[in-house]
């Protein structure tokens, strides 16, 4: 096998490796994006609790949804620290 044939084979292998690397990067990006997506849930609250959270959210300059997420995040963080 001459040098030109070896170069062609190496170039073909490099192209295969580049394609595999590109595919891996796409999959990693898709996984990261999926992890970032927020899950939706249906949450039923008593009106009095809803009003309390709404006032708290207003004090903290957050949406009610943001306030609920904040409360849950803090509760999970505190539980992990125990």
What are the SSEs and their pairings?
Elements: H1 3-36, H2 47-59, H3 64-81
Helix pairs in contact: 2-3
Distance between the termini: 67 Å
Global outline: rod-shaped
Assembly context of the chains: single chain
Strand content: under 5%
Percentage of residues assigned to helices: over 70%
* Total number of beta strands: 0
What are the defining features of this structure?
mainly alpha, 82 residues, single chain
Describe the structure.
With 82 residues, this protein is mostly helical. Helices cover 79% and strands 0% of the residues. The protein is built from three helices and no strands. α2 (47-59) crosses α3 (64-81). It is rod-shaped, with a radius of gyration of 26 Å.
